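Duplicate of earlier report; Phosphomannomutase input re-posted below.
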Amino acid sequence: MNTTIDLSASFKAYDVRGIVGETITAETVRAVGAAFVDVLGLAGETVLVGGDMRPSSPEFSSAFADGATARGADVIFLGEISTDELYYASGKLDAAGVTFTASHNPAQYNGMKMSRPGAVPVSSETGLTEIRERAEQYLSDGAIPAVDVQGTTSSRDILEDYAQYLRSLVDLSGIRPLKVVVDAGNGMAGLTTPAVLGDQYLDALPLEIIPLYFELDGTFPNHPANPLEPENLKDLQRAVLSNHADIGLAFDGDADRCFVIDEQGEPVSPSAVTAMVARREIRRAQANGEQEPVIIHNLITSRAVPELVRAESGRPVRTRVGHSFIKAVMAEEGAVFGGEHSAHYYFREFWNADTGMLAAMHVLAALGEQERPLSDLGREYEPYFSSGEINSRIDDAAAATARVRQEFENDGVTVDEVDGLTFTAEDGSWWFNLRASNTEPFLRLNAEAEDPATLETLTAAVLEQIRQ
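Output:
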């Protein structure tokens, strides 16, 4: 009798992520590889397979390939790659693919990020649910039926091509010399940084790279590869100060996100980075004859972003939080660039996909093309004061949200419901957004104001209602 298999513990809205040996195993990965080919109609087509530096990634890559080739796809192994290397290969080769990574999660996790040909993401709304259901069926049946003409396997190293492509998008050869500390967190930026910013394959740039934790090690012996947590930036901040560096860059485990530290050891907000890159991308598009280039920003980036976009004669488009939404709107709008508060940055010239390295190159260019220090330059893009994301563990998020709405909704405040609730003062002096987490019992608060005192008062008043 067939046993019902449930993979829902590891299949999320945008990717697959689980604990190795528990919610993600070689057996389940093999079934997912077969289902990936079936659901996306990839028999006879190329499927790209790579993975990060986690110990389980090679085994899972092989298992996925076994399932995919059994159903007739030809697999190209890419070896150890960053997530944006997968997007590059998927875009450049117009092939579907998967990379094994759990991004910033701890060492016991691994997972899969999938894309259709052209780096189009696979989410629960665009095939991931059907892939899970087909894989569950194969696991319940106890076998993956092989097609008559099974697929082949081959290998390809794309690192040099990826580096060359990024170099073609941002010319750093003429900037002033910069001292750059890069914290790879033992993640994939340890592989990509020397290739893109160093002279491993290409001509040397006017950059002195000071490496932190470039050794690829998926057990993360130094600190978690999650730069969103301030604790994990401390080594980079110390190294920037002690080396009198111009800038610090921190990447997450799969190197699709990049965080920036100025020469004083202070973080440059992702909203400021979004505005900085947006200005560059708008001006480049305008130089190519484009009228009113579109910039995407999610609803909790600073209002400085849409203000700058309008000032530069671009058109800002606001969207929900989450990379599948951003990528979809990027494609719909033909947007040149998009940014999120979580340090994901999306580029039209990168198949609407996110890449931390390309964003870092834009920041290096913006810094190196003028003489001011980054702390001074950054202030230009960060005129307001932000709370950052404040999480409250709440059993009844709906009741807490209702209390906040009752307290703040009045004639002088507008409320919209694009993603959670966003409250905006009529005079523009402050706004805040309240969103319930999809995966945890948290209410997430993001607030911004024109001055620190207003921000402090506002934040305290909202949290008082939430945490009653």
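The chain has a mean pLDDT of 95.

Merging into the original ticket.
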